[in-house]
Design brief:
- The chain is α/β, with parallel strands linked by helices.
- The protein contains nine helices and five strands; from the N terminus they run E-H-E-H-E-H-E-H-E-H-H-H-H-H.
- It has helices spanning 14-26, 37-41, 63-72, 88-96, 109-141, 145-155, 160-167, 171-185, 190-205; strands spanning 6-10, 30-34, 50-55, 79-83, 101-104.
- Helix 3 links the parallel strand 3 and strand 4 (79-83).
- Helix 6 crosses helix 8 (171-185) and helix 7 packs across helix 8 (171-185).
- The longest helix is centred in the middle third of the chain and has 33 residues, at 109-141.
- It is elongated.
Length: 206
């Protein structure tokens, strides 16, 4: 595992925090432990692959409520729930909320480590995609208003003649705009441009 990866652990039971931290250290994973969700909220999440091992039964805000509050705050982090008193409705609620795993104590060390690895892999993939989205958005912002119009129409399948008529431009001018769009967006083909357009729309919708 890379040195930058980090596993957060929230559990009000000190013995559990120590046990999980020791387990992670034994497999060269960094851990940061907290006794409450309030402590976790005080820290800044690094821009490196992370996941959260979270106890369901916590004083005050429960783990499931905390999962929902993270979602409302727009904080995305893979969660592995652990609990000594779990049931099927709890597990279903956790998984529907996006949890990686719901483990009932006592569980095997291998089960927890497997879930943590899946969580880190998921976060690494998301961070990679997010970085790609940011770069794509930066290129899109370099387009002029007219070039964005042309990009949208090209992505919609309109021919140069149709775009020229729609925008009241000459076909030569449309071809120039189209060429600049392809260059600025670093698109190798119209198919590339369509995929970029779709990705931008998904990014805007989130």
């Amino acid at each position: 595992m890379a040195e930058s990866e980090l596993v957060f652990v929230i559990d009000d039971d000190e013995s559990v925090r120590i046990a999980v931290a020791n387990l992670l250290e034994a497999v060269n994973l960094r851990a940061q432990v907290f006794a409450s969700t309030e402590e976790f909220f005080k820290i800044a999440r690094p821009s490196t692959p992370c996941c959260l091992v979270l106890d369901v039964q916590l004083p005050g805000t429960s783990g499931l409520q905390f999962q929902e509050s993270l979602a409302r705050a727009g904080i995305r982090i893979p969660i592995i729930f652990i609990t000594a008193h779990g049931d099927i409705p709890m597990a279903m609620r956790a998984v529907r909320g996006g949890a990686i795993e719901f483990l009932t104590k006592p569980f095997q060390k291998e089960e927890l480590l497997s879930a943590i690895h899946r969580g880190l892999d998921a976060d690494r993939a998301w961070l990679h995609e997010h970085a790609g989205d940011a770069a794509l958005q930066a290129r899109f912002e370099e387009l002029t208003a007219r070039e964005r119009e042309v990009m949208e129409m090209v992505s919609a399948g309109l021919a140069n003649k149709q775009i020229a008529a729609e925008l009241e431009l000459s076909e030569v001018t449309v071809k120039i705009h189209r060429s600049r769009v392809m260059q600025k967006m670093q698109a190798n083909s119209i198919a590339d441009l369509v995929r970029m357009s779709d990705r931008l729309k998904r990014s805007f919708a989130q």
